[in-house]
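Bug #77: duplicate submission created two jobs. Keeping one. Sequence:
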Amino acid sequence: MKKMKFKTRMQWGWFKAALLGTCLGLLIAPTVGSSLGITKEDPVISFFTGISFGPKTKVMINGNVVALAKSEEAGEAAFKAARLAYNAEGVKILDVNVSFEEVDKEKDAKAIKGMRVLKNEALSDEILASFDKYATQNKELAYTMRIDDYTVTVDSMENLVAVLEQTQGQYDTEDRFQVNLEATQSQNVTMYEIGVTEKGAAEDSKAEENGSSESQEVPTDENNNSESSETSSEEDGSGTPDEENAENGGVTMLPPTRVGLTGENADEQSISSEEQQPENAGDTDSQAGEVKEEAPEESTPEVNPAVAAQAVNDGIKFVGFSEKIQVTQTYVDKNLIKDKETTYNELTAKNDELSIYVVEPGDCLSVIAEKNNMTVDQIKELNPGIESDDNLYYDDRLNITVPTAAVQILVQKQETYEEKYNEDTVYEDDADMYIGESEVVQEGSQGTHIVTDLVTYKNDIESSREQLQENIEVAAVAQIVRRGTKSKPTYMYPVTNWNVTSNYGYRWGRLHAGTDVGIPVGTTVRASRAGKVITAGWVGGYGNCVMIDHGDGVWTVYGHLSEFSTSVGSYVNQGDQIALSGNTGRSTGPHLHFEIRVNGSSVDPTPYLQGTAN
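Kept job's structure:
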C-alpha cells in the first residue's frame, strides 16, 4: 500500500513539473524567438497570448470591425504603423474613417465572432490588410480642386480644365493664353497646380529650334542652287522676288483669293461682279451725296501722334488666375462629384464678401455707395457709427460688401494715356515767420505727360498700377511756399492769483485798455514775456508803471505798482520779477492794471494769456 502511494506521488509530481515547464516555455517563447530572429508568430503562442480576460477594443474602419486590440492606445499605435506601411512605396490617398470603441459582448457578439485580441505586428498587419478593401468602398476616382477655402470635385481632369478655360476665356478674348497642369515638387503625391502660359511662346521656341536645324541640313552646292533658282523664276515668268518687291514698295503682293469658290464657279462669280459694276457706277455719286446730306460724317477726335507711338505695344499682357489653384487626385463619395456645368456656375457665382473702403477727399455716403454698388442704408448697417456725412473723415476705414467669385481672373493690361499733372509743392522754411504763417513765393502750373502703365485687374476691378514709361510734353512748375518755423510767443499771467475785477473793453463811454486784477499791495509782478524794459517810472494815471518791448511790435504794460525790481534798458526773461503791486496813480484800490499793445494799439490780453490769439 505504501509502495503504491509512493508511485502515485511520483507520477503526480512529474505531471506538475511537465505542466509548469510547458507554461514557462509558452511565456518565454516570444522573447527567445525574437532574439533568434524568428519573426513569424507561432499559432499556439498566438492562441494563448490572444486570450484576454479584460476589456477589449474594436478597431473599426468605415464602421466595420477589422480587428480587436487590448486597448485604444494599442489600436491607435497599430493604425499609425499600418499607415506608414501603406505609404512605404509612396504617399497614397487614403480616405477612411477610423474609430476605436470598447467591445460590448452582447451587441458585438456577431461582429467579433471568431476574432481574438491581436498585438503589435499582427494587429498592424490586420489593419493594413483592410485598407485596400475599405479605402475605395462606394467611392470613385475624381479630381478635387482647391482655391483658398473653396473646394469642388469633378469627375475628370478634362472637365476640370475645360471649366477653368471657360472661366478664363471670358477675359482672354483673343484666345492667346492656355490653362496648363503643372506637377508639384513632391514626387509621391498625385497633385497638380494650375498655370497659364501664352500659346505662341512654346511653339515659337520649337520653331526656332527646328528652323536652325533645317538651315544646317540644306545642301550647299553653289552651282545646283543658282541654276535651280534661275530655272524656277524663268518658268514662272515672274522675275525675281526682289524685283517684284521693289515695284510694290518692298512688300510682296499676293493675288486676292475668294474663299469657297474654285474652278468655273470662281470665274462666273468674277464675271458677274464685273458686269454689275457699270450698272451701279452712274448712281454712285448721287447716292453718296444723298447719304451725306441725311447723315453727315461724325468727326473723329484727333489722336496725339506721340501718344499713338508710345501705345504701340498696349494691350493685354496676361490673363490668368489670381489665387493658387491645386488639383488632387482622390477617391471620393459619388454624391460629392459635380458635373462641368454645376462646377462652372459655382466658380463664377458672386457672393457678397466683407471688405474695407478707405474714405477719400470729396467722399460722401452717396458717392461711396455708388462706387461700391451699394445703398446708403447698407453702408450704415455695416458701420453702426456712421449716421450721416458729418461722421465721415478723410482716411476712415468703412466696412463694405464686394461681390466676389470663388475664382478671381487676373488680367494685366498695358495702357498709355495723356494727362495733366502737378508737381509737389516746394516748401521753404523761414525762421522769421511764426509757425502757421505762410506766403506763396512762386505760383505753380500744370504740365502734360504721356504715361504707360501696367494695370492689374481682378474681375474688372483695378487692384494695382505700375508705371512703365513717362514722357513729359509740357513740364509742370511747382508752387513754392515760404512757411514759418518760429514758435509763436507765449504769455504768462503776471501774478499768481488772477482775480479779474474789470475786463478789457468800453465802460462809461470810454475804453478800458487793459485788464484789472485785484491783489494786495506788495504782490510780486512778473514779466509776462521776455523783452527789454523801456519804461520803469511814473506814467500819469498809471502811477508807477513798467513797459516791456518784446521786439515784434508787441508791448506789455504793468500799472499802479508800488516798487520796481528792474530798470530801463534791462533785458528780462519770462517770469522774472519786475515790480511789486500797489495802489498808485488813478486807482480806487489795490490792483494791477495789465495791458498788451500790438503796433501801438491796445488789444484784449485774455486770448494771449490763454494761447488762443491768432
